Amino acid sequence: MAADVALEVRGARVRFGAVVPCDGVDITVHAGEIVGIIGPNGAGKSTLLDAVSGFAPMEAGTIAISGVDVTRALPYRRARLGLARSFQDARGFANMTVREALLGSLHGSFRGGLLAEGIGAGVARDDEHAALDAVEDALALVDVRRYLDTRIAELSVGTARAVELAVLSLRRPTVLLLDEPASGLQQSEVEALAGVIQRIRGDAATLIVEHDVPFVRSFVDRLVAMDLGRVIAQGDPAAVLDHPAVIESYLGVPAR
After folding, report:
1. Helices within 23-108 (DSSP H only)
2. Residue 90 dihedral angles phi and psi, to the nearest 5°
3. Cβ contacts of residue 242 below 8 Å, gap of 6+?
4. Full-model pTM
5. 117 and 182 in contact (C-beta within 8 Å)?
6. What is the bridge-based pairing of β-strands 60-65 and 68-69?
């Protein structure tokens, strides 16, 4: 694997009974690169993200993060290696406030344990101060400050998405997976989303599944088109969108 390859997927196959939503998928994403995945419903795009993040077991193939084979690793182990992802429905703990969600996302990096926190030991205070500083950094990237004391369940779809992206930025990922980040957003929110993604990802290798083709093509380095579980085209966005197999998969008729 090349030194700057952050994510390498080789021959990924996922099977659910007789259904094979991913069938021999190969994808490589380099550090700092943004790759978009497009395709019709049922193409296997979200299943691929599930396989990469450890939520869908693979029947065949391998996955490596920064050169480390994680094919059989549990999701939390992949997260410790720098993998972070969003979901189509902007998941969060509904009863948490935004402040609690942001601070809670950092708990895994605390050096002190439960006892240290309970007695207010110095290491616990240091952890808390570091977390507060990190949250301030995240708020500078995604301005959700006005909602800090609002419960996640009370947020609009767009604001919940923004909070989710702020949480992801706190993880400082090396590999970032985004599953339809523009889904459910108003057009004005979609127009601002590309800039937010650029800010929160840092130098992470970023893989974005998206149905809004004009949105995703506007800022990705490469496009990968999938249909029926397979990659049918990849490369320069303009060339991929002009590929006959891609046109056929979207229109349902052969390209002329």
Report:
1. 45-53, 75-80, 98-104
2. 45, 60
3. none
4. 0.88
5. no
6. antiparallel
> Mean pLDDT for each 10-residue chunk of the chain (256 residues)?
84 96 97 96 95 96 97 95 88 85 74 45 64 88 94 92 92 94 89 91 94 93 96 96 90 57
Here the tokens at position 14 are: 């996922």
CA distance 146 to 140: 13
What is 223-237 written as a DSSP string? EEEEETTEEEEEESH
Distance CA 253, CA 15 (A): 28
Separation between Cα atoms, residue 125 and residue 121, nearest integer Å: 6
Q: Tell me, what DSSP letter sits at residue 13?
A: E
Is 173 in contact with 206 (CB distance < 8 Å)?
Answer: no
DSSP classification of residue 36: E
Q: What angle do CA 231, 178, 87 make, to 5 degrees?
A: 110
Domain boundaries, the chain: 5-251
5-251 — its CATH code?
A: 3.40.50.300
